[in-house]
Amino acid sequence: MFKKLINDKRSRFIITLVSVVIAAFLQAYVLNVFIQPTNLLSSGFTGVAILIEKITSLFGFSFPISLGMILLNLPVAILCYKSISPKFTFFSLLEVFLASFFLNFTHYPPLFDDILLNIVFGGFAYGLLTVIALKGNASTGGTDFIALYVSNRKGKAIWGYVFIFNAIILTIFGYMFSWEYAGYSILLQFISTKTIDSFYKRYERVTLQITTTKAQEIIEAYILQYHHGISCVEAIGGYSKKPMNLLHTVVSSYEVQDIVSLMKDVDSNVIINVLKTENFFGYFYQTPIE
């Protein structure tokens, strides 16, 4: 048991580390290939760092984007690490440092001359790299820290509010430089935000309706591994006329596959119906970010 726990921790560490490296490399690649060549602004603190670099260039010197990314992220990380997770904060900062490193020492030519193609592919790729980091139990730092801090407290995703923050930054960019490119950048942010919403389901809840003849065994296995409540009512099979039980529980959508596998291991004939939960009122246990 102890050996398995060590192996699980080691596996999670490796998965997180690999996710962070991939996300950092992709972030630098997207900035180099899609965003900077077209004078667009990326999301979050990376976009703020690009904006600072553009503003300082008006005064005869250039503040490096990579340095701006690091300096902007450090204060937020210090404020948020206790409320989120020290491990999560460490890997998120590692992603920021690696992205800054890759940005300085890797250079790639643009793929497209057409600005709309850059917006579509750049927005999707930026959203996807954010999802890779989040699913690996890390983030790309900056506004991700703030979004996850608030999401953990509210129990729901707030990426729409992050988009509003980015739109405000882009309005400043448009006022100082170009409304046209600010508009293009807002479109890029919209695609990026929708990509995150589509693939990152941590805060989406679903209802599981479970029909089984081994209710007690399933309940014991479920409670042993998960902290969610589960209710049980007696029922009669309409076809078999045999006694059975109907179980009811609400879980995060990202847990569904693991829970279904657990219940199938206990009862191979279990029937599980997964229903999207639009609204939920009452206490709900949200698994903390490690």
TrEMBL record:
Coiled coil: none annotated. The chain crosses the membrane at residues 12-35, 55-81, 88-109, 115-136, 157-175. Pfam families: DUF2179 (PF10035), YitT_membrane (PF02588). Residues 228-282 form the DUF2179 domain. InterPro entries: DUF2179, N-reg_PII/ATP_PRibTrfase_C, UPF0750_membrane, YitT. Keywords: Cell membrane, Membrane, Transmembrane, Transmembrane helix. The keyword Thylakoid does not apply. GO terms for cellular component: plasma membrane. It comes from the Bacteria. It is found in: Cell membrane. It is a multi-pass membrane protein. This is Uncharacterized membrane-anchored protein YitT, contains DUF161 and DUF2179 domains. It comes from Thomasclavelia cocleata. The lineage of its organism: Bacteria, Bacillati, Bacillota, Erysipelotrichia, Erysipelotrichales.
